């Protein structure tokens, strides 16, 4: 069964977000990608590790300042650290 994450499939950005059609997370339980504070991110990151659009996902999260969830195999904390390194 096809499930989408919040923000996936927004018609205004379909051209820029076409990569989401190939995202493995869209085919799994979206709750795994938005764990409760202190919850495990292991299952989500495992899916991301095999995802063919992992890099596009991470770039999207960084450019759109996604503050919640696992994007491109990284948690919000990991993305924040990456942003600081890039600054």
Walkthrough of the structure:
One of its GO terms (molecular function) is protein-disulfide reductase [NAD(P)H] activity. This protein is an all-alpha fold. The chain has one domain. It contains three helices and no strands. The chain is globular.
Task: Give the SSE layout.
Elements: H1 42-49, H2 54-63, H3 76-86
Largest sheet, in brief, is: none
How many separate domains?
Answer: 1
Strand content: under 5%
Q: Quick one: overall form?
A: globular
Specify the helix fraction band.
25-40%
C-alpha end-to-end distance: 40 Å
Content-based structural category: mainly alpha
Q: Number of DSSP strands? A: 0
Mean pLDDT: 85
SS summary, helix count: 3
GO molecular function: 4 iron, 4 sulfur cluster binding; dinitrosyl-iron complex binding; DNA binding; metal ion binding; protein-disulfide reductase [NAD(P)H] activity
Main location: cytoplasm
GO biological process, one term: cell redox homeostasis
Protein name: Transcriptional regulator WhiB
Provide tags for this entry.
iron; 33% helix; 87 residues; mainly alpha; iron-sulfur; 0% strand
Write a compact overview of the structure shown.
By secondary structure, the chain is mostly helical. The protein has one domain (11-86).
């Amino acid at each position: 069964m096809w499930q989408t994450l919040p923000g996936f499939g927004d018609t205004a950005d379909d051209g820029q977000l076409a990569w989401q059609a190939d995202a493995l997370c869209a085919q799994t339980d979206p709750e795994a990608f938005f764990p409760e504070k202190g919850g495990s991110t292991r299952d989500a990151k495992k899916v991301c590790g095999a995802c063919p659009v992992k890099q596009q996902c991470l770039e999207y999260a960084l450019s759109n300042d996604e503050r919640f969830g696992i994007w491109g195999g990284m948690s919000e904390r990991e993305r924040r650290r990456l942003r600081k390194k890039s600054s």
